């Protein structure tokens, strides 16, 4: 039996669970189904959740595991195994200081599942690398590689020239960024 | 985010947009399928436990 505070916390997590699901499924109907399945599983397994621990990470883990489990069952490949870009945007987007929303989402949807989830967890949801690694069941270094490669591929898809930005970056940071690009996700 | 990541303006812009597409969905009202889901699960559990008494 769950405590009222855990139930309230679970309800409060629904919007962000839905946003995370959307980044995985890239389809709102599928995202809603995924959230429903994940919440039912979380509810059924609340006896395994330890009160006071990170409920957000626990439910996000259930959701992403459900996503990958469903994918395996469907035996449908939605990405290239090694993350090769499947296509560029038709036109180079104009730069007005902020990336156009539609273009960014289009580019984001072309990344691999692992890169999208790493970027959303770390870049948008505020997970630490350690929390994201625990949620994804991989090493911290793997998450960092996926985030770096995802960002690099986004920049490439958006036609962003990093050299201008990198001119302002010191050589030590450039070495870290380059190493992140070379590391496999 | 890690401090070194904030040094790169392109990466900062990418992260801003990641948050935007995340918030775009997170700020929407929940669809009927999900609104009240936890309450429905709680009610179902409550009625199951009452039946078993």
Commentary on this structure:
The complex is a heterodimer of chains A (185) and B (53). By secondary structure, chain A is mostly helical. Helices cover 66% and strands 0% of the residues of chain A. Chain A contains nine helices and no strands. Chain B is mainly α. Chain B contains two helices and no strands. Chain B has helices at 9-26, 37-51. The longest helix of chain B is centred in the N-terminal third of the chain and has 18 residues, at 9-26. Chain B is rod-shaped and about 60 Å long. Chain B starts with 8 loop residues before the first helix and ends with a helix. At the A-B interface, helix 1, helix 2, helix 4, helix 5 and helix 7 of A face helix 1 and helix 2 of B.
Set out the fold topology.
The complex is a heterodimer of chains A (185) and B (53).
Chain A: H1 4-25, H2 28-44, H3 55-74, H4 101-108, H5 113-124, H6 129-136, H7 140-157, H8 162-167, H9 171-182
Helix pairs in contact in A: 1-2, 1-3, 2-3, 3-6, 5-7, 6-7, 7-9
Chain B: H1 9-26, H2 37-51
